[in-house]
Amino acid sequence: MRSALSHLIRSSSSASPSRLSSPVLLKNGKAFSSDATPRDSRLVDEPFKVEEAEPVKVPPPPPSPDKLLVLGGSGFVGSHVCKEALERGFVVSSLNRSGKPSISESWADKVIWNQGNLLEPASLEDSMDGVSAVVSCVGGFGSNSQMFKLNGTANINAIRAAAEKGIKRFVYVSAADFGLVNYLLQGYYEGKRAAEAELLSKFTYGGVILRPGFIHGTRRVGSMNIPLGLVGSPMQMVLQNAKPLTRLPLVGPMLTPPVSAASVAKVAVRAATDPVFPPGIVDVYGIMRYSEQK
Ligand SMILES: NC(=O)c1ccc[n+]([C@@H]2O[C@H](COP(=O)([O-])OP(=O)(O)OC[C@H]3O[C@@H](n4cnc5c(N)ncnc54)[C@H](OP(=O)(O)O)[C@@H]3O)[C@@H](O)[C@H]2O)c1
């Protein structure tokens, strides 16, 4: 017994350090060295208890949802964009001159309302903080110069402010050409095209322009709901397959099919949040096509 022990001590002291320094722990708590000889194994074969380390599963933190800023979120189209974005799980803020609209609909309580005027650029800076994409639904009618300001200058201000903040995507709800009507509403269309040009130059990769014709849906005027869909939906049904007619001179563009506010909103939110949505102009047929996709 004594000679066996001294033999063990001798053989352990004569072993090279590298052979003894690299045992691997087995699951059963025993040690194993890949280069151990059968004689060496007597040295390390003693069972000893080692608690097996359990891998700790730490769930990754949920990604914080993107924040979408809807300019004109209280308007007809803007309210549909807010609702669509909320349904898709985004954080939604809006900026318009009168702030939170006086409606008692649950979606409105979930929007962060900012008061500001796009014609006074300083009033919109703060609302762009932490925003990943902007959808502008600001536009309207009036005298030619008012229309140019609202559809053009106001949106150009917003586009520049968003670009300066480093926001990656910007969607502008513009309007389709209406032939003769363009001439009658010169300020409106010139404003739209000026804003479009600014968007394409500042947001080469993340700028999307939607060009709907007439938009139908339920429009709120004061305390009344006007069901524009009663006229718009049948017109859409008739005109959506008559694209060649829109090429007729003068009257053709007036045959552009109407599209629902819900469809415009769906495409606007997707264009603002899907990084592979192609930049550029989406006409009414494109809006209808994209809105049918899941
Ligand atoms: N409705 C259609 O059939 C149709 C068709 C084609 C294209 N579009 C285009 O779609 C866009 C939305 O149209 P809409 O019918 O929804 O218009 P809307 O109902 O009149 O809404 C306009 C929104 O813009 C806000 N706004 C107006 N001036 C502003 C300013 N200077 N600064 C900040 N916010 C301002 C308004 O809120 P405050 O008044 O509180 O500021 C409102 O929230 C427009 O660009 C329009 O040209 C509409």
TrEMBL record:
Biological process, per Gene Ontology: ubiquinone biosynthetic process
InterPro entries: ComplexI_NDUFA9_subunit, NAD(P)-bd_dom, NAD(P)-bd_dom_sf
Origin: domain of life: Eukaryota
Pfam families in the record: NAD_binding_10
NAD(P)-binding domain: residues covered: 72-216
Ranges in a coiled coil: none
Region (Disordered): 1-22
GO molecular function, one term: protein-containing complex binding
Gene3D superfamilies tied to this protein: NAD(P)-binding Rossmann-like Domain
An annotated GO cellular component: mitochondrion
Protein name: NAD(P)-binding domain-containing protein
Gene name as annotated: LOC123395035
